[in-house]
Amino acid sequence: MNINFDDDIKTVKDYVVSLRRYFHMYPETALNEYNTSAKIKEELSSLNIPFKEFGNTGVVGYIGKSDYEIALRADLDALNVTEMNECEYKSKKEGYMHGCGHDGHTAALLGAAKILKKHEQELNITILLLFQPAEENCMGAKLAIESGLLENVKAIFGIHIFSDIPYGTVSVTKGPRMAITDRFEINIKGKGGHAAKPHQCVDTAIVAANMLLALQTIVSRNVDPVHNAVVTVGKMTAGTQYNVIAENASLSGTVRTFYEEDAQLIKQRIENIASSISQTYNAKATVNYGLALHPAVINPDNLTEHFVNYLNNQKLDFTLKDTPPLMLGEDFSSYQAILPGIFAFAGGGFNDKENYPNHHCKFDFDERVLIDAVTLHLNFVNMFNDASRRNIVI
């Protein structure tokens, strides 16, 4: 049974904007979202929505009384970034800001909750409102799963707001959406000495430079060309003084892939390159490789296709458009590893001023996207509220 939410959506605009601005002014980093969590519980209580807590700052609200459960997820945490925007809702905490849109995700889910509670008697399902902490350090989804609160959930939905996608555009695209995010560090040991006597030394700056160049051949010459992958060295250090040959050097970076076989291939190639090049120059190298705490975000074909078809039959204020996958990481993928789930991209880019990417000190978004996010949550609920669709879409 479809519930008509059209009139209700218009009524929550001011509510979600005010919540978003509140969360934006009081950002909290991963596992420290105590004030954010308190505000969520305050709002749920005012709406007479029961809730449970997990992981100190996580909250799960419950709407409906059916045995059939689906979940809507929002993340809570902010970044260790000093905000450089000048606006009335600028962060009040020096050195911290909501630079990734999580304030909007949380506000939009509360907006959807307000509407869903009003229609609770029309629901044939139970909706879990999953307010997840610690997305940025990839620990929050794991905490939610380990809590056991999602054990009976049949499907899950999440949204990410992006400023480099124009407002009015939403992507609900099947297949790979966000990447596996591995990390690595290569430490090189040589033999230092006087810059004028290189024959007595093992110059690790030369070793590091050759490794840096060789690492950039992995994607172009080892990974299947139809697969997306990135190897980036973000930090390179060597030496202590201009006239001293470097005894130690290091490279640290990140690997982004969508497929486990590519992740393992690149890991092996990095280790091989570090070993072979260091031996060539009589140096020694050790590789510390940190595998991602989550898999890639991959939207399942069947569920995604049905949701897109469902949305195409609704009256929407946004346009559905496929967008390319992103090499960013997201621990929403941890939910997808255990149950069917869709992760949507919502465009929050301004049409009349410069946009800055997520994690930038001037990141912001067009707040009209908050209503698009509310609309997406409600439509995901409606698709499952009709019992005849459930076995088809999963």
Short précis:
By secondary structure, the protein is α/β, with parallel strands linked by helices. It contains twelve helices and 16 strands. The strands form four sheets. An eight-stranded mixed β-sheet has the order 1-2-4-3-5-16-6-15, with helices on both faces. Strands 10-12-8-13 form a four-stranded antiparallel β-sheet, with helices on one face. Strands 7-14 form a two-stranded antiparallel ribbon.
Helix fraction, binned, reads 25-40%
SSE ordering: HHHEEEHEHEEEEEHHEEEHEEHEHEHH
Strand order of the largest sheet: 1-2-4-3-5-16-6-15
Q: Biggest sheet, in brief?
A: 8 strands, mixed
Shape: elongated
Query: How large is the share of residues in beta strands?
Result: 25-35%
**Distance between the terminal alpha carbons, to the nearest Å?**
18 Å
The chain-level mean pLDDT equals 97
Give start-end ranges of low-pLDDT stretches: none
Count of extended strands: 16
* Helix count from the secondary structure assignment: 12
| Structural class based on helices, strands and sheet pairing | alpha/beta
Specify Rg, calculated over alpha carbons. 24 Å
Overview of this protein structure:
The protein is of the alpha/beta class and 394 residues long. It has twelve helices and 16 strands. An eight-stranded mixed beta sheet has the order 1-2-4-3-5-16-6-15, sandwiched between helices. The radius of gyration is 24 Å and the shape is elongated. The mean pLDDT is 97.
